[in-house]
Amino acid sequence: MSIKNKAFSVAATVLLVGGATAAGTLSASAATPQCGEHCIDIYNKKLGTADHPRYVEAVHQGVAKVGQPTVLQRASSSDPAEDFLPRVGKVSDFYKAHLVSSEVNRHYGNLRAAQIQYAPFGKASGLCVGLATTAYQNEGLTLQSCGLPGKTVWIVDTKDSPATAADNYFPLVNGSTTDVKHPYAMTYQSHAQRGLGHWSHGRGNHGHWSHARSNKHLPAQIQVRKLMGNPAHVPDSQLWGTNLGVVK
Predict the structure, then answer these.
(1) 3-state DSSP call for residue 102?
(2) Which phi and psi angles does 136 have, rounded to 5°?
(3) Is 201 exposed, middle or buried (0-12, 13-18, 19+ CB in 10 A)?
(4) pLDDT, tens only, 158-194
(5) Does domain 5-244 sit in CATH 3.90.550.10?
(6) Ranges of H-type helices in 58-197
(7) φ, ψ for residue 122, nearest 5 deg
(8) Distance in angstroms (rounded) separating the CA atoms of residues 78 and 66
(9) Higher pLDDT, 4 or 116
């Protein structure tokens, strides 16, 4: 189902905590010049900062197709695999658009959320960062149709880490989560899962990535895991920040 533009904004500053950080203060990002100031990058607190994100979310090999993994790779102003356009609003807006459940809306309705659409060189692909199925432990992030309910919505869960939210770092909870105490949140895996391994085809368009044989030369696929340590001690591997525009 398409999203009504009245309820949502492509201004990525809204994705930041409270929308208080001005776009002009964000000095580093990973969008190409063609994607420009409307594009966003997402980086992990464990690996970088707003000024130096170092590694950012990207589509593996830049291939725009359902099921293609999203990974962390070095920030670059020339790699369109790192170009994403955010569509943001409150969780309640996504509920009205039938993209999250009533249960998710009851718990997170006043929080901000986003769909993150892959847009190489600024051209919208219709594919968003999401999950192939309802969130489960260690499920890898992939490109999915932006109309896929719940699984392509990411909740800026500031209330589960209020102290870091003040510094614009926050958990990103998948909209399909069914556990509000320890919801499934975007996670950078720094140990055995480092590397994509190989793709195993399953039924339909799902399949999965095997990490049995990690390759250090391949980037790390981003996963969802149950949020830990909330609200006072969420690990850096589950805290994320955002930047706007072309890398400088």
Answers:
(1) helix
(2) -145, 165
(3) exposed
(4) 999 999 999 999 999 999 999 999 999 999 986 444 4
(5) no
(6) 91-96, 102-108, 162-165
(7) 85, 5
(8) 23
(9) 116
Tell me if 88 sits within 8 A of 103, measured CB to CB. no
Q: What is the reported pTM?
A: 0.82
Side chain identity at residue 77, one-letter code = S
Query: Token digits for 64?
Result: 């725009």
- Better-scored residue on pLDDT, 191 or 233: 233
**Domain spans in the chain, listed from the N-terminal domain onward:** 5-244
178 vs 196: CA distance, rounded Å: 26
Taking only the tens place, the pLDDT of each residue in 58-104 is 999 999 999 999 999 999 989 999 999 999 999 999 999 999 999 99
Q: Retrieve residue 122's tokens.
A: 């600024």
Q: Which whole-number Å values give the CA distances from 226 to 125, 185, 187, 223, 232, in the listed order? A: 29, 6, 9, 10, 15
